[in-house]
Structures are given as C-alpha cells and as structure tokens.
Amino acid sequence: MTVFAIAQISVHDRPRYERYVARFMPVLKQYGGRLLAADERATVVEGAWPHDKLILMAFEDRAAFERWAGSPEYQEISKDRVAATEGVVLLVDGVPGA
Fold this sequence. Notes:
- 40% of the residues lie in helices and 32% in strands.
- The chain is α+β, with helices and mostly antiparallel strands.
- It starts with a strand and ends in a 5-residue tail after the last strand.
- The relative contact order is 0.35.
C-alpha cells in the first residue's frame, strides 16, 4: 500500500538547507520515492500553522520509505536538513483502492 511522508518544517539556516535540497532528488529517486509537493507558500485555510514549508512524498510501501530514510545516502545528506530546520515528519497510509 502506498504511504505518504509529510514533512512540515521551519528553516533557520537557509544555506545549509539549500545544500540538502541540491542533493535530495537523486537520493529520493534512487530509492523509488516520488516528490509530490514542496511548497513554501502553502495557504492556511483553517487554524494556525507554525512552519515555513510543507513537503509531500510518496513511497510504494512502508518498507520502501524505511529503505530510503535509513539508507547511507540519505543519512549523509539529512545531516544538513536536521541542522538547518525544525519540524515534524508524518508517515501515513494511503487509502486502499484510491
């Protein structure tokens, strides 16, 4: 079943975050992930949202997400993301048959 990773982040070190972004897509594609959205201009329709950016990714299943997230390649580049941002990452199951 498809799973979606949703990251909601605030960036406090833009140069370091941009270094992460520059290396992100090849690693994501290498592990079969798909970037569906990455928006620093998300419109808050209801409630309050304390972050700067929302990222939405899709993976074939949880095992695929875990292979990507735990891979040596992603672990290396994620050091910059961790140092440059604060936020939350959610992993949610897709709707069967959708």
